[in-house]
């Protein structure tokens, strides 16, 4: 009997040691990027919103590190997503613009990327949600395996939409294959010409439940007209109101499946990008119409993710980054009362501009890091960019990478340092501006002065613009003529970084 008890004790002790070893082996945290689409600096209550409640985003901000000078690299989606994953400024890649649904893969498969770096160091990797970085090589057959794509740039698992909710193809793609596709109903996509007999928003307005502008007025799916033409794939077409739940279910399943080993999850929410189609549970949740309601829906999704991390016991070992790909826009292609029902809400906060703009509201976005027990709650005023995640995470896992643009600010992201970037290049529609300390320089560009895109000031002007954000956060006082020495100093520093990229987008003469 004594011998039996000794054997049992040995087995129990061995099992405990094995479990402890397994836990200790995961020295690196799980990493989750929560990336919203068109969420503005002023759309989160932790950032000053008073008319919208975002309790789950607030939880991460108030219990983690909230950055008030955190930037996306671009004021539009594709370029920012490119920079987030590659650590490279998008203006270095001439193709890094808003892509159609048929665009080839923007990221070179030989490039270093965040998921590739992490996968090479023991992480399982996944992208779930919006992709919008191109697929294939330029002539995609949507009825067979689609490659290259997310799986070829570092993701073990992918469940995505190809581009945006307002563009065809309106299908989910799982690991390179259209999800729920019926081979007897082949998919065809054309961004120029419609297919014979296919209804559009133009010729069949009686089929619409949401009206679009001329650009968003082609193929109708679920009563919503889209950009581009699509034929076939009826069984695979998504139902817009279910999209948030579909992606969330995928996220929950992935976390539960990979909970016992390090994982990297890129969760690309589609909200509050157009078309804004909240699930019926959230219709009327905010009184602001569909735009406010999908922000409430997105916040709930984030709460469900946090709840899942708690349930499976990995919240304390998960580093979460939450941000947006660019600033806000209200009227962006559909009639959805975003302006009419705005009320007192200010999506840009006290910033000028918005999506498509070189002004601050184009690229300064909610920027939050959370890691329970590792990040001391607080607010940082230091400059930080999404382009820095590559080098910062490489430092976390102790695997150095060579990158021209991405800076290592891991200690800042974790709240252990008070030193951030000294300067940053900001971009909107292939044009760039420069922030250095508290100063922002917007160099001259052709076109009418301060012209509008979808009701937003782009910041383009034939004149220099110079602002001191410490005294003028809303960029109302242009100091370029009053402070020529500072303007010229900033311009010289700007040109030393961007060089030819600026010369190609301006009409100024250079010696």
Structure commentary:
The protein is of the alpha/beta class and 511 residues long. The protein has three domains: 21-180 and 236-413, Alkaline Phosphatase, subunit A; 188-231, no CATH class; 423-505, Arylsulfatase, C-terminal domain. It is 24% helix and 17% strand. The protein contains eleven helices and 22 strands. The protein has helices at 2-25, 55-62, 77-86, 114-119, 243-258, 290-311, 360-363, 389-396, 410-413, 484-498, 500-505, and strands at residues 30-36, 65-67, 70-71, 124-130, 157-161, 172-174, 177-178, 188-190, 220-221, 224-225, 229-231, 263-268, 318-324, 367-370, 378-380, 384-385, 423-428, 431-436, 439-442, 452-453, 456-457, 465-468. It has a ten-stranded mixed sheet with strand order 7-6-5-4-12-1-13-14-2-15. A four-stranded antiparallel sheet has the order 17-18-19-22. Helix 5 (243-258) runs parallel beside helix 6 (290-311). Mean pLDDT is 93; it is low at 4-25.
What structural keywords apply?
alpha/beta; Alkaline Phosphatase, subunit A; 511 residues; 3 domains
Present the secondary structure layout:
Blueprint: H1 2-25, E1 30-36, H2 55-62, E2 65-67, E3 70-71, H3 77-86, H4 114-119, E4 124-130, E5 157-161, E6 172-174, E7 177-178, E8 188-190, E9 220-221, E10 224-225, E11 229-231, H5 243-258, E12 263-268, H6 290-311, E13 318-324, H7 360-363, E14 367-370, E15 378-380, E16 384-385, H8 389-396, H9 410-413, E17 423-428, E18 431-436, E19 439-442, E20 452-453, E21 456-457, E22 465-468, H10 484-498, H11 500-505
Parallel strand pairs: 1-12, 1-13, 2-15, 3-16, 4-5, 4-12
Antiparallel strand pairs: 2-14, 5-6, 6-7, 8-11, 9-10, 13-14, 17-18, 18-19, 19-22, 20-21
Helix pairs in contact: 5-6
